[in-house]
Amino acid sequence: IAMKALKSRLYQMELDRRNAAINEAHEAKGDAGWGNQIRSYVLQPYQMVKDLRTNYETSDTKGVLDGDLDAFMAATLAQDVAGKSRAEAQGD
Questions:
Q1: How far is residue 64's CA from residue 62's CA, in Å, rounded to a whole number?
Q2: What whole-number percentage of the chain has pLDDT above 90?
Q3: How many Å apart are CA 54 and CA 88, to the nearest integer?
Q4: Cα separation, 28 vs 23, whole angstroms
Q5: How far, in Å, CA of 81 to CA of 92, rounded?
Q6: By three-state DSSP, how is residue 40 classified?
Q7: What is the pTM of this model?
Q8: How far apart are CA 74 and CA 51, in angstroms?
Q9: Which whole-number Å values give the CA distances from 78 to 20, 23, 72, 75, in the listed order?
């Protein structure tokens, strides 16, 4: 009986640890609701695409609209490596 109780406690502790890790990862995600804008596209009177999360901008609107998003992904990865959260970058 004592061994079953010990197994039960250990199992519950592991479940709690996993749930805490899942909750932490979920809280780190940004809100994906309405009104969250990722990029701003200006095509007239001048041309610019700006990533509002990283503040990266480019005047190559045609390339971005054709799917060339490598620079935006690199800016996001560089921000993540630097340890800045997206909320901190938006405040800059």
A1: 5
A2: 60
A3: 9
A4: 9
A5: 17
A6: strand
A7: 0.54
A8: 12
A9: 27, 25, 10, 5
